[in-house]
Design brief:
Low-confidence stretches: none
Bound molecules: adenosine-5'-diphosphate, magnesium ion
Largest sheet: 6 strands, mixed
Structural class: alpha/beta
Organism: Lutimaribacter degradans
Number of domains: 2
Mean pLDDT: 91
Strand order of the largest sheet: 6-7-8-3-9-10
Number of strands: 10
Helix content: 25-40%
CATH superfamily of the largest domain: P-loop containing nucleotide triphosphate hydrolases
Strand content: 15-25%
CATH architecture of the largest domain: 3-Layer(aba) Sandwich
Shape: globular
Distance between the termini: 36 Å
Keywords: ATP-binding, Nucleotide-binding
Protein name: ABC transporter ATP-binding protein
Amino acid sequence: MSVVLETRGLTKAFGGLVAVNDVSLQLHKGELLALIGPNGAGKSTCFNMLMGQLRPTKGSVHLMGEDITGLSPRVIWRRGVGRTFQITATYASMTVVENVQMALLSHNHQVLKVLPYAHKMHRDRAHELLEMVGMAEQADRHCAVLAYGDLKRLELAIALAHEPTLLLMDEPTAGMAPRERIALMQLTADIVRDQGVSVLFTEHDMDVVFAHSHRIMVLNRGQLIADGNVEAIRNDPRVQEVYLGG
Ligand code: ADP
Ligand code: MG
């Protein structure tokens, strides 16, 4: 299986605090990989280094075999590392399909050049993406009136508009009801399967993690303490200690 993302000895220190400590991981094509661990374990710090928001203190990040360590968020995004964003107020006044069209325009470097015709561009592809995330029926609704769970699905469609090789989702289901969480991750798993995109995500709800992950890595105090499939992680005494032993 081809390696999409690899970190080697990834480390981030904030003063004396080593938030991420010597993390080496691999993510393969078409894989849905969960990074879990208690609050403060270093998950978001890891994500921020992968996205270029934070520069590692030590170690490196490789995308499809190329060293991307220290590149800017914009450049890393252009190389095919997508992420789910919060929908900003700017887009609340537009419809669902227009939001996806905007993302497609941006992906094609077209925003400023073609703005007067923007409403006609990429409509078919936008509808296709909305179909993919189960939002076809809501295409012409304004974002301002969407339920939270639907905004999250729209976010996913917007991320997919950029045709990412790798999608990073840091707590994508935060703030959602349990049933919505399972549904969003089910959708993500379907997209991984059908589109061949690879996903690295964090999630604190173990039911969601165990339901859909292909593989799970466990971070504790900045260090990877376990890496395996659902069964292996569920039965790993070190993981049980971290989660139950306090
Ligand atoms: P998680 O996402 O797993 O909850 P974080 O990566 O957010 O964990 O945080 C890991 C540790 O690093 C925590 O102790 C946190 O307080 C610390 N930390 C995170 N960001 C910063 C920062 N910008 N400056 C100083 N400490 C930070
Ligand atoms: Mg976090």
